Amino acid sequence: MRPTLPDTLYHYTCTDRAPGIRADRELVPNYQPWIGWPLVWLTDMDTPDKAALGLTARHLLRCDRTAVRCTVARHPAVQPWWLWVRNADVDLLSRDLYEAAEGAAPAHWWVSMVPLPVAEVYDLTAEQVGA
Questions:
Q1: Are strands 68-73 and 8-13 parallel, antiparallel or unpaired?
Q2: Number of structural domains found in the chain
Q3: Does the predicted TM-score (pTM) go above 0.90?
Q4: Is 13 left (phi over 0), alpha (psi -120 to 50) or beta?
Q5: How does DSSP classify residue 6?
Q6: At 81, is the pLDDT very low, low, confident or very high (cuts 50, 70, 90)?
Q7: What confidence score (pLDDT) does residue 128 get?
Q8: Does some domain include residue 129?
């Protein structure tokens, strides 16, 4: 059974990447070295939570990946992380690198392997990102 795809999903990013997204009006899959696939990461959470979104690896992330929120309308290429990771046959160790982080909420993760059109790109305030 395919889960219900929300009407609107969100992609959070840093201020460095926002100008390119605004110019292109799309999100392009980015190669994920731990799992070996290019993905666009999305969530159904309209307010960012760094732990829930898996954005707490400070040694890997050089900017605040919750500073900008992009909205994406329902798209047939989007699927829930749990379904995609099972169908992609990602090994358990690689999967755990994402899912086992403290506070991670993979039930709120959605992914796409194709570029997605962006409806809106919105700069968030410090209060909105919980800073």
A1: antiparallel
A2: 1
A3: no
A4: beta
A5: P
A6: very high
A7: 62
A8: no
The amino acid occupying position 19 is P
Confidence of residue 14 (pLDDT cuts 50, 70, 90): confident
Q: How far apart are CA 78 and CA 60, in angstroms?
A: 25
Examine residue 24 and state whether it is found in any structural domain, yes or no: yes
pLDDT of 24 higher than 90: yes
* CATH number, residue 98: 3.20.170
Domain that holds residue 31: 8-123
In a domain, 130, yes or no: no
